[in-house]
Amino acid sequence: MTEQDMKYFGHEKLFSRMLSDIRDIEENGIVTSSAMNDIDTLIKEALPMCGTPDKLQPILDALQNLGVKTVEDMKLVQKDDLAGVLKPIQERKLLAHVNKGLYLEYK
To answer: Domain of life of the organism in this record (predicted)?
Structure first.
């Protein structure tokens, strides 16, 4: 990018895509595969019977739809947030595991 490009296209044209991406990151954060692997591990620990991909993926999808991006976000999940994905006892087990602070090992 040269000074001539700046004069010809203007700042907004040259930086609009980058600024849009930065805004998106600021508003939505970045979901890393590492964070999702930590959430995956947390779920498997709390609910060993949900450790297979066909049982685990719907739970991960539901959490992503809720906006969960990190293990820390799991503390904000409420009992009924996973209704239809988990049975009530499974929900309670998962939330109890998170609320006991066992998730701290993933930080």
So the answer is: Eukaryota
Mean pLDDT of all residues in 41-63: 92
Q: How crowded is the C-beta side of 83, counted as CA atoms within 13 Å?
A: 4
**Which residues in 66-90 are b (16+ Cβ under 10 Å) and which e?**
eebbbbebbeebeeebbeebbeeeb
Q: What is the pTM of this model?
A: 0.65
Q: Where are the domains of the chain?
A: 1-30, 33-106
The identity of residue 92, as a single letter, is R
Longest alpha-carbon distance in the chain: 64
Phi/psi region, residue 7 (left: phi>0; alpha: psi -120 to 50; beta: rest), is alpha
Sequence-distant contacts of 90-94: CB under 8 A, at least 24 apart: 90/47, 90/50, 93/46, 93/47, 94/43, 94/46, 94/47
Residues 52, 44, 102: CA angle, nearest 5 degrees = 175
What pLDDT is recorded for position 106? 47
- Beta-carbon count within 10 A of 39 CB: 25
